[in-house]
Specification:
With about 180 residues, the protein is mainly alpha-helical. It folds into 2 domains: about 1-50, Arc Repressor Mutant, subunit A (Orthogonal Bundle), CATH 1.10.10; about 65-180, Tetracycline Repressor, domain 2. The chain has helices at about 10-25, 30-35, 40-45, 50-70, 80-95, 95-105, 115-120, 125-130, 140-160, 165-180. Helix 1 packs across helix 4 (about 50-70), helix 5 (about 80-95) crosses helix 6 (about 95-105) and helix 5 runs parallel beside helix 9. The protein is elongated and about 60 Å long. It starts with 8 loop residues before the first helix and ends with a helix.
């Protein structure tokens, strides 16, 4: 009777995700992953042709995690993009290594920054654009770009510990900026 596999694809992927969250993408190596899940590197390469194949699946898992994070983030503001901005900044603070992988690393054409922040099927950005009163759809892309540059800058400051505004101050700041951006649309 053949021995049952103990190191499954799920064990490998979940172990890699734990490593990613704890130590960052650069530390998801075959040797570190094998030590983390308690095996040799052989089971990893039995399941995956190479580490790039594993990291591609790891990216998808991180993206799904971000989508779920946004779906579960409390919606409180009547001003479009404030909640999305708060969520994005909080994600950068709480999930630094996932944020770095998703939003501070080079992307392919299938995973643009817009695609990532919009969500796979959730349309986070589209939903917020629909909330902007009297939005000229020809200007929607430019409006989002202005808002995203601002929000992304705040999130990047959060990753380095340079963002020290309280939640209330952040809401006020985002509200003022976003209302300013949207009033001429």
């Amino acid at each position: 009777m053949a021995r049952k596999e103990q190191i499954t694809k799920a064990v490998i992927l979940n172990g890699a995700f734990e490593l990613l969250k704890e130590q960052g993408e650069e530390n998801v190596t075959a040797r570190k992953l094998a030590a983390h899940i308690g095996c040799s590197t052989q089971p990893i390469f039995r399941v995956y042709d190479n580490m790039d194949a594993l990291k591609a699946e790891l990216f998808d898992l991180a993206r799904d995690f971000y989508d779920d994070y946004c779906l579960n983030h409390k919606k409180e503001s009547a001003v479009p993009f404030v909640d999305l901005g708060l969520c994005y900044i909080q994600f950068a603070k709480e999930e630094l290594n996932l944020f770095r992988m998703l939003f501070l690393s080079p992307h392919d054409e299938e995973n643009t920054m817009y695609d990532l922040i919009n969500g796979k099927e959730n349309g986070f950005v589209i939903k917020e654009l629909k909330r902007v009163h009297n939005l000229n759809m020809d200007r929607a892309q430019m409006l989002f770009m202005k808002i995203f540059i601002f929000i992304h800058g705040m999130a990047c400051m959060a990753t380095s510990g340079e963002f020290d505004l309280s939640k209330d101050e952040t809401v006020q700041f985002l509200t003022e900026i976003i209302e300013n951006f949207t009033k001429n649309q």
